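Issue 218. Parser rejects a valid record. Input:
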Amino acid sequence: MFKMENETDNELNSPISNDSGSILVGEGVLLEGRIVNAKDTNISGTYNGSVSSDSLYISKNGNLTGDIKTHDMTINGKFTGDIRTENSLVVNSTALAKGNFEYSTLEVKFGATIEGMVKHSGSLSTFTPSEKIPSQEEPHDLDAQSLDSSSEDNN
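Output the parser choked on:
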């Protein structure tokens, strides 16, 4: 093995630092396990296991089987398992997704295949009028005289 000057054996055998919190399972790679507290996870190969990540992306050639908890997820390849997204779930046209899907916002492109239970879990905005809209049964504050005087002002 080639060794640089001032480099120790411990430095050569130490794990590579990944301060960005990104995980990449490259095409052709098979990985099994558990991913916890990742920032960005990109699956281009095959991954079997659970994932907890801020964002998760499965490429067109990616294949993921497992339980997922994430803020945002995009599926272009194959997925089997359970997904819970805090924000968005995007299922693109090349995706084949099977399982249980819980999401706040969902976007499914034409051509995508989804099999399983799909459940909205985000909060729905409710309409709360800021001003009371008078109904026809309620008396109006305006009288005929004030209407006549306002129409005369406009002439």
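Fixed in the parser; the record now loads. Residues 71 and 86 are 4 Å apart (CA to CA).
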